[in-house]
Design a protein that fits this description.
- The protein is of the alpha+beta class and 178 residues long.
- The chain has a single domain, classed as Heat Shock Protein 90 (2-Layer Sandwich), CATH 3.30.565.
- The protein is 40% helix and 26% strand.
- It contains six helices and six strands, in the order αββααββαββαα.
- Strands 3-4-2-1-5-6 form a six-stranded mixed beta sheet.
- Helix 1 packs parallel to helix 4 and helix 4 runs antiparallel to helix 6.
Length: 178
């Protein structure tokens, strides 16, 4: 849900560092997603325009509805939305939802999403933190790169390994809290 779109925005903004957090708190009935980057950032005018929609820095064919749709979904699902940005420093987008809200869209395949983020970001520094009721999975591309040596995140064997590793950890956490 929106994670890939937010990461793609960060990559388009020239980010060399991206921090992705997904926090699930069953007891509080909250789901929070946060993506922070060190990209080009936005000035106040652009920040306001992005939240209204139909703005994109990518191309004329881009619709630019990702941020407004995320914002509206968060607010509609008894949550909150915040976007902070500074020129030359980067952008942070945070969305919180009531997890049990009937209109909360399915979160989708977290394993595939996390894997896609790592493979797409290839040479950039990415951290992915998944917390669910006190259990945590942290993926750090710098640490993973050390393990892989010369192999790229896009190498088929690396993709298979990462998919299995992430699936084992995410599914283990989901079963504990499910």
């Amino acid at each position: 849900m929106h994670l890939l779109d937010l990461v793609q925005n960060a990559l388009s903004a020239g980010s060399s560092r991206i921090d992705v957090r997904v926090i699930c708190d069953q007891a509080a009935d909250r789901l929070t997603i946060r993506v922070a980057d060190n990209g080009t950032g936005m000035d106040e005018r652009t920040l306001e325009t992005v939240q209204r929609g139909y703005y994109s820095s990518k191309s004329e064919q881009s619709v630019g509805l990702g941020i407004p749709l995320l914002r509206e979904t968060a607010l509609h699902c008894d949550g909150r939305f915040a976007i902070e940005s500074k020129m030359g420093e980067g952008t942070t987008v945070t969305a919180e939802f009531r997890k049990s809200h009937i209109d909360l869209p399915p979160f989708g395949d977290l394993v595939a999403t996390f894997l896609n983020i790592i493979v797409t970001a290839d040479a950039r520094y990415v951290t992915i933190t998944y917390q669910c009721d006190g259990n945590e999975l942290e993926l750090d591309t710098a640490a993973l790169s050390e393990l892989l040596g010369e192999l790229s995140f896009q190498h088929p064997e690396v993709i298979r390994f990462l998919k299995a590793y992430i699936a084992e950890r995410v599914n283990k956490e989901v079963r504990r809290t499910g």
